[in-house]
User: Fold this.
Amino acid sequence: METRVAAISIILENNQSVNEVNAILNQYSDYIVGRMGIPYKQRKLSIISIVIDAPQDVISTLSGRLGKLQGVSAKAAYSKFIFNDND
Assistant:
């Protein structure tokens, strides 16, 4: 299976979608390498960074599902390398 490493940046503009974001991330936990969350109280935002190692379609689906949530922005940045588990 071919995988890529990507960083997904998630910005939550309100706390209403926090449970939905966490539920979605839990569904993809097998692919998540690391996660960092920063509450930005002055601006009433939360920023979450995810590092993921997964097939490209999984990364796109995860980012898309997150970005469709109310008050949530999500963007993925991909590494240029493609890894093959058979290597």
Remarks:
- The chain has a mean pLDDT of 94.
